[in-house]
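Subject: Cupin

B.,
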Amino acid sequence: MNLLHVDATTAELPEPQPKPTSVSGQLESAISVWADAVTDTGVWECGPGEFTADRSGATEVCHIISGSGTVVGEDGTSAAIGPGTLLVLPRGWRGTWFVTEAIRKTYVMVGA
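Prediction pasted inline below.
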């Protein structure tokens, strides 16, 4: 098995596409770096705006590389996010991302 390495700050992403859960017409782009039957990891980018997220089937761990915003759970808890933020959205979490400056992150989805 080979070691995988990607510079997430400069990785070239595909042409952005409309984000299906955006309420403001955002575009997103992502590359999967590695995946198996239950795990997916990669680099993701999304422009400013608002979108909903539902982690009913998987836990997401992400590290914000650039950009800023706020993530608000359905229970009212919130977190300001920016470069260096490590965010865990546990299985069952639902909420809204408010992106104020385009966000680039690395992610690991477990249980997907």
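The beta strands are 17-18, 27-35, 39-46, 49-55, 59-73, 78-81, 86-89, 93-110.

T.
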